[in-house]
């Protein structure tokens, strides 16, 4: 029998992952998501989701989704440029641009699709993308797909970023240079030094692409993000975000100028060559945006801040990491917490750097303070 060139084959590769303690398997829930979920027949407090405001299981939001289906049907049936742009897509983009204070906004089917579509549309082989070392996989993949030169600066190290920008400018005075970073880092829950980064990118004639995925709905006036919190939103060239976390749904966006938006409409391949998100989802997202901006949203953010302070006095975001180092130690801690009724995921390489395996506690306004106190005493982390 002739052999096919499969290298080690999938079984061999899975065995390698397993031997390295890096094998992942799907662990489905047996219930809807929410602050309390069922897995393997057991009820657990859910500290694993990114549902920071508790909107994913909100009945009014579910109703808005149903209303969207009734009004606009099930699917959008075509890409946005062909005939998939339906009334709620336009309304959502207008509402988002107004909320963000930008000229325009463009919605994608996910945050991931936003990053891998927009970075290659904004930068090409003559350009330079300068990424924080801890940028999310979608930003890294988008940067790679762009074909631009990629430079990386150590996490939040503005001195190194300044030197990098000087070097780039000395060599390529005319290149388009885009600094890419996140406002809340997804696995550490820390913030980027946004004001300093903006100073630097302006000083060196660069642009800034800021992924507000974990800040949208959570930080700033009306939940409009870190840039808005610091009053700097007009100095961020590209504000990216997702509706899959605090907004409780799914989808991604880029808020920017009309000209950049028009360029993305022409060039972002995940936008051009992909069917438009279901119109009912866009309709529900408008409702979610309204909720996020409402006084109910303000109450939820206040509750969230109080919940965060129970676990960690001065922590700036709902993502609280507890570092263990080894994969086995982090996995064992996660298993032990699950036995005690808490769902807290262990995060390993390649999601985080080697040697920094951790528990990632994700807090929500939907958690009760008592539950968080119980978790805190379980992990001895006050
Ligand atoms: N950016 C960051 C920082 C993220 O954490 C995520 C989600 N893990 C994404 C982008 C991708 O967003 P989505 O889940 O909507 O695809």
TrEMBL record:
Signal peptide start-end: none
Domain of life according to the entry: Bacteria
Pfam families given in the database record: Aminotran_1_2
Domain Aminotransferase class I/classII large positions: 44-379
EC number of this enzyme: 2.3.1.47
Top-level enzyme category: transferase
An MF annotation (GO) of this entry: 8-amino-7-oxononanoate synthase activity
Cofactor names: pyridoxal 5'-phosphate
Keywords assigned: Acyltransferase, Pyridoxal phosphate, Transferase
UniProt keyword annotation of DNA-binding present: no
PANTHER family with a match to the protein in the record: 8-AMINO-7-OXONONANOATE SYNTHASE, CLASS II AMINOTRANSFERASE/8-AMINO-7-OXONONANOATE SYNTHASE
Protein name, as recorded: 8-amino-7-oxononanoate synthase
Organism: Luteolibacter soli
């Amino acid at each position: 029998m002739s052999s096919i060139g499969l290298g080690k084959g999938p079984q061999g590769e899975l065995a390698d992952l397993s031997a390295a303690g890096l094998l992942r398997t799907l662990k489905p829930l047996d219930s809807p998501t929410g602050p309390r979920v069922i897995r393997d027949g057991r009820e657990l407090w859910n500290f694993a989701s990114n549902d920071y405001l508790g909107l994913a299981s909100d009945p009014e939001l579910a109703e808005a989704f149903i209303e969207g289906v009734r009004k606009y049907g099930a699917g959008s049936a075509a890409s946005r440029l062909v005939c998939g742009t339906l009334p709620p897509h336009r309304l959502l983009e207008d509402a988002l641009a107004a909320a963000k204070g930008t000229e325009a906004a463009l919605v994608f089917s996910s945050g991931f699709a936003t990053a891998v579509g927009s970075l290659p549309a904004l930068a090409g082989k003559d350009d330079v993308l300068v990424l924080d070392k801890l940028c999310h996989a979608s930003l890294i993949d988008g940067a790679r797909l762009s074909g631009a030169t990629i430079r990386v600066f150590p996490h939040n190290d503005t001195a190194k970023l300044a030197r990098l920008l000087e070097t780039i400018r000395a060599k390529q005075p005319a290149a388009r240079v885009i600094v890419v970073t996140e406002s809340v880092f997804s696995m550490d829950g820390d913030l980027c030094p946004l004001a300093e980064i903006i100073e630097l990118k302006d000083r060196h004639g660069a642009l800034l692409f800021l992924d507000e995925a974990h800040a949208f709905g959570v930080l700033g006036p009306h939940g409009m993000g870190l840039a808005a919190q610091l009053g700097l939103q007009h100095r961020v060239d590209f504000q990216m975000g997702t509706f899959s976390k605090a907004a409780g749904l799914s989808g991604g966006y880029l808020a920017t100028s009309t000209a950049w938006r028009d360029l993305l409409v022409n060039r972002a391949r995940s936008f051009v060559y992909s069917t438009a998100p279901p119109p009912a989802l866009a309709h529900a997202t408008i409702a979610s945006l309204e909720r996020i901006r409402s006084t109910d949203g303000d109450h939820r953010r206040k509750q969230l801040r109080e919940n965060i302070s129970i676990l960690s006095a001065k922590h700036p975001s709902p993502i609280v990491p507890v570092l263990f180092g080894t994969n086995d130690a982090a996995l064992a801690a996660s298993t032990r917490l699950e036995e005690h009724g808490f769902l807290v995921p262990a995060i390993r390489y390649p999601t985080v750097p080697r040697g920094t395996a951790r528990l990632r506690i994700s807090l929500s306004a939907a958690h009760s303070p008592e539950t968080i106190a119980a978790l805190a005493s379980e992990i001895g982390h006050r």
